[in-house]
């Protein structure tokens, strides 16, 4: 979200211009000014800064309409690299991307489970080194690490503000400790927002859409012209904790009938475990995310009990998606997160059906539901890109990134 | 919502600077630049434009810390006037405000009911003339008329995109016809968003908050640093049409268990009318908004049946307010709209209680619920201010205002 003061003028300009240069491969300053609506002076200033950073260089000239030749700008994808890690208790996924957002290495990391944060951070640091090795990227060329995870969180301090999965995680200096262990700056970001930034990065063109993200929990994000909606403390869009049933069960968060506790992957697994025949038939009893994927595959294969559980969950997600669209007024909803790995199309179709029949402004514009190009990587990619975004958005080119001391 | 391109740089700057000058009464360019984080050059440019428009003038000099004297800027409240009309089928309220947002005239207008739009527009035009007379404002000094009403709507075309209250209203050239009838430019705006702009105007300082608006229907708005969140077509924040009960009754909009159909003023009245003893005791049978206010006053006076209806409605509104806060992450919710005239404190306390026990980020920051300073006027005042905002936000100083041909 672009705020009215402070961050307004220079800040998102750099990220937006860099996105455009990436998208168009070879583009003149005049074209960039036209595409953004920014003045030539502002564009010249932004381009100079991107060249100074080494992110952009001149790649040739083009003569248009017999006028003076225009110098064309291109991205230097090898100018720097970013690491992204998306994690919750049940799963973790890491990527190394270049400045163009291309994935050079990816790896499933051991899930934190209920282990101490210090232990998990050490493990993350080892895997970061291994991923950089496999991508043949020198740590000195890495801009930083972006941790995409659940909220509430304090992005400025790089800490989680919730005792999940255990009390020790609440306020633990997550970013600072990982920065210390790797020698790299570390930023944290909401996982669903990161997924939105990842989807935007994979798509290239700036666009506006909502993301519904499901891993262990359900979250959401809203991207407007390529930039995330943030609210006052970047702790909004908690779609998993909106009530879809005012008379439903009390959730740990204090609310009643929360989407997460009624329809999230863990709720689906809990319900399946309550049906002993089903649980035994599907061989359940691993971690919830693995069990959820098993239920999903069984539903696809035609198991009626598994299908009933998934359908009920997808219906509730559809109702929550209608709420999201009726409140944020977007024309597209993208599903992301590893819970959608196999079962994504079932959720996509159910959510689309609900939106088609219930969205308030459906006679003004339609709303399309898509699966992210890579449901299980989008948030990790977005986490990596957040490191770059934070750098470009901070006046001193370093805010919201906790550097090693 | 400030978008990343086009409207980004100049546009909200003018409105934001004008707001600051209004708030501080006499302020130097240096202070304005400091308060906004804008550069001195941008501020000089913005101030020059506001002086050219006649909205701002120099009101003296001040010497600070022994430096060179700084010229102080002040608002010219009499530079221009705006008319605002908030209406739905059941009620209409008009105001004349000056450039400082002060109300010079206010009047309850006849409600449209189910009459033809052409008839209602003629009536509105007559009342605009009468209000300007009573405020002693010449039409030539009026910037325009802002119509704050329900959605979906097309702000650019100045038409409603819904067959409410009758089919004839769908696509009727509302703004153009009223412009023709009055000789004044006309803008339309969502009523809840207008209420948010009105609350911001009455408060002075830029701030971030959500509005829950209730008249005949329920809507909402989100104001961030003084500017409304808009989404892609300005048709978001339809709080009345989010589901609070996935298993609830089907609403006309297609969704199930909508807040409006479960807890809105009309739903409360319908339930009261179903209880013959209560309906007769309270003398119900007028228009729904009048009946709702009667039920509210009976609840305050201790009628247990009326109190039960109001409490149930307030509980559901609280659940929807939790959704609004969990998604938009704001620290304040303001209740506005004439339905809150007497019963406001009951709703305020119920919503506050729900937020205190259920908001997801309540351990990060608290969320306060307030009644608007003037629940029944806020949207009309905001509608008037929208005319000014649209002028300042348009590159050609005229966009989104439909002028008489």
Cα separation of the termini of chain A: 30 Å
Rg calc of chain A: 22 Å
Number of domains of chain A: 3
Please give the count of helices of chain A.
13
- Greatest contact pair? A-B, 72 and 72 residues
What best-fitting shape of chain A do the alpha-carbon axes yield?
globular
Helix percent of chain A reads 40-55%
What about the largest sheet of chain A? 5 strands, mixed
Name the CATH class of the largest domain in chain A.
Alpha Beta
Explain what this protein looks like in three dimensions.
- Two copies of one chain form a homodimer.
- Helix content of chain A is 41%, strand content 19%.
- Chain A has 13 helices and 15 strands.
- Chain A is globular and about 75 Å long.
- Residues 1-11 and 397-401 of chain A have low confidence and may be disordered.
- In chain A, helix 8 packs across helix 10 and helix 10 (288-301) crosses helix 11 (304-328).
- Chain A has three domains: 11-75, Arc Repressor Mutant, subunit A (Orthogonal Bundle), CATH 1.10.10.10; 80-197 and 379-393, Nucleotidyltransferase, domain 5; 206-373, ATPase, nucleotide binding domain (Nucleotidyltransferase, domain 5).
- At the A-B interface, helix 1 and helix 11 of A face helix 1 and helix 11 of B.
Task: Identify the notable features of this structure and list them briefly.
3 domains; 405 residues; Nucleotidyltransferase, domain 5; alpha/beta; 13 helices; 41% helix; 5-stranded mixed beta sheet; disordered N terminus; Arc Repressor Mutant, subunit A; homodimer; globular
């Amino acid at each position: 979200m672009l705020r009215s003061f402070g961050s307004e003028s220079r800040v998102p300009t750099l990220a937006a211009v860099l996105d455009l240069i990436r998208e168009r491969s070879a583009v003149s300053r005049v074209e960039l000014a036209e595409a953004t609506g920014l003045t030539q002076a502002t564009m010249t200033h932004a381009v100079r800064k991107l060249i100074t950073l080494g992110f952009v260089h001149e790649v040739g000239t083009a003569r248009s309409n017999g006028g003076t030749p225009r110098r064309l700008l291109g991205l230097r994808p090898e100018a720097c690299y970013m690491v992204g890690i998306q994690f919750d208790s049940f799963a973790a996924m890491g990527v190394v991307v270049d400045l163009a957002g291309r994935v050079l290495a990816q790896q499933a990391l051991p899930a934190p489970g209920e282990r101490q944060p210090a232990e998990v951070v050490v493990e993350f640091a080892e895997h970061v080194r291994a991923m950089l090795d496999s991508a043949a990227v020198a740590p000195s060329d890495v801009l930083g690490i972006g941790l995409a995870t659940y909220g509430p969180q304090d992005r400025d301090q790089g800490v989680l503000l919730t005792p999940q999965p255990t009390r020790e995680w609440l306020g633990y200096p997550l970013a600072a400790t990982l920065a210390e262990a790797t020698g790299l700056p570390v930023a944290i970001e909401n996982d669903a927002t990161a997924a939105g930034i990842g989807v935007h990065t994979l798509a290239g063109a700036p666009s506006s859409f909502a993301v519904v993200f499901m891993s262990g929990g359900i979250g959401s994000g809203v991207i407007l012209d390529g930039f995330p909606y943030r609210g006052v403390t970047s702790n909004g869009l908690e779609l998993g904790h909106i009530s879809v049933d005012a008379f439903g069960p009390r959730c740990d968060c204090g609310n009643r009938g929360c989407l997460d506790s009624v329809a999230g992957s863990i709720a689906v697994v809990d319900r399946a475990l309550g049906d002993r025949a089903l649980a035994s038939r599907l061989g359940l009893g691993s971690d919830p995310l693995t069990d959820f994927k098993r239920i999903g595959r069984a539903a696809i294969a035609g198991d009626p009990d598994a299908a009933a559980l998934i359908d009920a969950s997808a219906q509730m997600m559809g109702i929550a998606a209608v709420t999201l669209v009726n409140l944020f007024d977007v024309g597209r909803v993208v599903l992301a997160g590893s819970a959608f790995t196999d079962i994504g199309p079932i959720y996509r179709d159910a959510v689309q059906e609900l939106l088609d029949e219930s969205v308030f402004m459906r006679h003004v514009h339609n709303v399309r539901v898509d699966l992210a190009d890579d449901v299980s990587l989008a948030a990790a990619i977005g986490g990596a890109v957040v490191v770059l975004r934070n750098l470009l958005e901070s006046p001193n080119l370093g805010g919201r990134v906790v550097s090693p001391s």
